[in-house]
Amino acid sequence: MELAHSGAEGLERSLSAEHASAILDIRLPGINGFEVLRRIRHKSDIPVLILTAFAEDSYRVKGLEMGADDYLHKPFIPEELLARIRTILRRTGTAAVSPRSGFVEVGDLLLDIGTRRGYRSGEEIFLTNSEFSLLEVLLLEAGQVIPRAEIVRRVQGRQHNPYDRSIDVHVSHLRKKLASHSDGSERIKVVRGVGHFYSLPANTQVP
Q: CATH code for 7-92?
């Protein structure tokens, strides 16, 4: 563990490739936490957990939209912080191999489980670790509605909190990055009160 005393120092150490994850505050001397996160995501997919006194939903949503893997506000229970860090590391570490030798392919989308990279029609799409995990879950059960509580458990490693909208933020971000199907239909759909599913255009083969 290493402590950085300013935004600039935190950015430098986060990009040093010497750490498995980063814990980031919003209120920092010099560069604030959101700007540090923006610069990190421009160059690295290192897992980032925001730990801050700002508990407002607007801050949480902004952090997640900018690529944070999780958001925890102070005061907090140390055991919860450790549990969330372990979940992030477990989620972004070596994943279980999918049925097709480490790849998940549905239509024009391809996920490389080993490198945690995503591609659409052969072109790479930049995905945060949380977005990759969510898309992997949706593609593995493409065409089937996955209950929201199950998505939270499989993607975030914790029980569903009806007031936590982080999954909605990640879904919104994925929709923008993936764009619509070639027929104009939405890729990720919601069944209100139930969950989400990845929709299949006509003649799509599922692995």
A: 3.40.50.2300
pLDDT of residue 137: 92
Please name which of 16, 19, 15, 17 lies closest in space to residue 2, comparing C-alpha atoms: 19
Identify any residues that bridge with 125 across adjacent strands, giving them in sequence order: 118
Is the pLDDT assigned to residue 76 strictly greater than 90? no
pLDDT tens digits, 143-177 = 888 998 999 888 888 877 877 788 889 999 999 99
Give CA–CA dist 82/78, Å, rounded. 6
What global pTM score does this model have? 0.55
Alpha carbon distance 188, 199 (integer Å):
6
Give the number of other CB atoms < 10 A from CB of residue 23.
21
Alpha helices (H) along 109-182: 129-140, 148-156, 166-178
Lookup: tokens for 33: 């936490």
Q: Is residue 202 scored above 70 in pLDDT?
A: no
Q: Does domain 104-198 have CATH number 1.10.3210.10?
A: no
